[in-house]
Amino acid sequence: MFNPSAKLKVDRRDGKLAMAHFFVAFTALAIGGLAGLLQTLVRSGKFELPAGIGYYQILTVHGVVLGLVLTTFFIMGFQIAATSKTSGTLTNKQRIAGWTGFWLMTAGTVLAAVMILLNEATVLYTFYAPLQAHALYYIGLTLVIVGSWIDGAAIIMKYAEWRRKNPGQPSPLLTFMSLVNTMMWIVATIGVASTVLFQLLPWSLGFVETVNIGVSRTLFWYFGHPLVYFWLLPAYMAWYVVIPKVIGGKIFSDSLARMSFILFLLFSIPVGFHHQLMEPGIDPAWKFLQVILTFLVVIPSLMTAFSLFATFESFGRSKGATGLFGWVKKLPWGDARFTVPFIGMVAFIPAGAGGIVNASHQMNQVVHNTIWVTGHFHLTVATSVVLTFFGVSYWLIPHLTGRILTKAMNKLGIIQAVIWAIGMTFMSGAMHAAGLLGAPRRSSYSEYGGAAQAAEWIPYQVAQAIGGTILFIGIILMLYIFINLAFFAPKGEQEFPVGEAADEAEKAPMVFENWKLWLGITVVLILFAYTIPFIDLIQNAPPGAKGYKLW
Ligand code: HAS
Ligand code: CU
Q1: Ligand with an atom nearest the CA of residue 348
Q2: How far apart are the first and last CA of the chain?
Q3: What is the mean pLDDT of residues 211-216?
Q4: Which ligand is nearest to the CA of 304?
Q5: What ipTM does this complex have?
């Protein structure tokens, strides 16, 4: 479909709103990256933290600041820019919602961060009960969630306005995708908001003595799995819509892209049990059902892989490529906007395969609670997703600040991604290997009383520290590029690339915009997968747990 706004620049005021999000995101990268470096050094056994700072405190900073803060702020900023670009400038009301959400999220982040720094909330990013944090930490998290809803309302309002003004027309693809991700986020965060508000907060304030751990963890993972797709879908937005334009090709199919996003909305949430396969109190039949649903949610990722290969191959062939892999040579390897996310895509192949291992109940027994899982998510979120976000930054930040990505910065961007890939190969590779040997995750350095098995892990932990150090160099480079693009790069016009679909002439079926239908099915699937297990967890609960501060 013809989309007149595709030619426009993002309005300066919307640009400011998006940039505000990016400043918080990249500050988080600096702090979280440093914490990560320190962790790998501690676990190598050759370094101790100064001034009595605890390993678990640093680990909490790392997980919260990178897993929750960097991602949420970057994603909200990106989605606002993408919606403004493809559906037109936000109205004042929408922009006010955006800023209100942004400031609430920022206030909540600062509050939670202060509590972690005061060592009052060393509960890791999953904040599992019975570890008990200071009430202000939970209040901070609540503000972040509520803020993100208000921020997301800007996107929902813009979408509704577009549909009103363009009756019978499918919405612009990037707006559609931002909307799906926002709705998925809202449905998912209801779970974590419930455990924080109704269980953890009253318990940490002393209003109730004990907490039902099974219920709390189940509510957490009801949110925790869609959380990882909330990180992934913006990367998919870039892979489906931006990358084809950057390479000079076409989106393989607009309708296929929409369908894969709808499948994510349907199947992302009723799958949280794949994080709880080893937990008591949940009937195996329900675990089995949620594992089946997990394998269903793999399908839209396979569709994405197919669609990307199709885009790359048809582009290559249009440039005269022949043979099975001739198209590889035709891709624009010198362009950071392509190469950096591409490295992310390649990483997603082993990353996704590892996920399928995790989701397989029997194999989960081998890897659960080992550092294999940490290796898995450093490939998924910390490579595929984060490298794509870096690749997006290289054009989006100059687009918003009225600057350009210079040749030198472009080159540095590619070097950054190569350094990242090398560092991550060491770190994540060693984590996967050590995990298979039984090395635990969420655990500081220990020789476990000289146990022979633990001695086997140590060389891998040294390799992790080498990888972590290389990654830290990558972070410094990224921060340097960010500061350049935000403040110092030459003034100019950097394009916001929005691809056109090869099937442009065929209008995407309007059924994709039928939210009553899709949200209805989402709710039915959630109720089906969770109602009876929740009743079980409440009716047959063991005595509640008192709070512990083990740090
Ligand atoms: Fe996961 C644990 C299962 C995807 C993140 N995951 C985690 C945790 C995180 C995380 C953070 O079933 C730890 C949570 C904690 O602290 O405890 N995960 C899966 C499955 C998938 C999956 C089945 N995970 C992700 C993504 C994440 C993420 C995405 C973040 C962004 N994960 C699990 C399970 C656990 C788990 C269990 C619990 C483990 C335990 O015991 O605790 C799937 O969605 C993966 C599907 C992906 C694919 C790959 C498709 C490939 C594509 C690339 C194409 C490439 C091209 C370029 C075109 C099937 C799209 C190539 C070109 C060339 C020339 C080669
Ligand atoms: Cu999951």
Answers
A1: 1
A2: 57
A3: 97
A4: 1
A5: 0.97
236 is known as an active-site residue: no
The Cα–Cα gap between 196 and 186 comes to 15
Backbone φ and ψ for 132, nearest 5 degrees, come out as: -120, 120
From 74, 377, 394, 472, active-site residue: 377
For residue 262, what are the contacts with CB-CB under 8 A and spacing of at least 6? 180, 512, 518
Catalytic, 229? Answer yes
Number of other CB atoms surrounding residue 538 within 10 Å:
11
Q: Whose CA is nearest to atom 31 of ligand 1?
A: 381
- Mutation pick for ligand 1 pocket among 380, 381, 385, 442 (CB with most ligand atoms within 8 Å): 380
- Say if residues 342 and 383 touch (Cβ distance below 8 Å): no
* Tens-place pLDDT, residues 143-155: 999 999 999 999 9
Four-residue CA torsion sign, 337, 238, 234, 424 = negative
Q: List the catalytic residue out of 21, 217, 275, 378.
A: 378
Arch. (CATH architecture) of 4-546: Up-down Bundle (1.20)
Indicate the burial class of 365 (C-beta count within 10 angstroms; 0-12, 13-18, 19 or more).
exposed
- Distance (angstroms) between ligand 2 centre and the Cα of 361 equals 13
Q: Which pLDDT tens digit goes with each residue over 169-192? A: 999 999 999 999 999 999 999 999
The pLDDT tens digits for 94-130 are 999 999 999 999 999 999 999 999 999 999 999 999 9
Q: Which helix (H) or strand (E) holds 522?
A: helix 515-539
Structure tokens at 178: 């931002």
How many whole angstroms from 191 Cα to the centroid of ligand 2? 15
Which residue among the candidates 62, 275, 376, 399 is catalytic per the annotation? 376
Domain boundaries, the chain: 4-546
Q: Which ligand sits nearest to residue 385's alpha carbon?
A: 1
The verdict on the CB of residue 366 being under 6 Å from ligand 1 is: no
CA of 522 to the centre of ligand 2 (A): 17
Question: Which has the minimum average pLDDT: 48-52, 209-213, 256-260, 268-272?
Answer: 48-52
Place of tokens 């509050």: 111
Instruction: Establish whether 274 is a catalytic residue.
Output: no
Nearest CA to ligand 1 atom 62: 346
Predicted pLDDT at 7: 58
Query: Which pLDDT tens digit goes with each residue over 17-64?
Result: 999 999 999 999 999 999 999 999 998 888 889 888 999 999 999 999
Question: What gap in Å lies between CA 179 and CA 157, rounded to an integer?
Answer: 10
Lowest mean pLDDT among 244-258, 404-418, 445-459: 445-459
Q: Which of 301, 306, 325, 329 to mutate to test the pocket of ligand 1 (most atoms within 8 A of CB)?
A: 301
Q: What are phi and psi of 405, to 5 degrees?
A: -85, 110
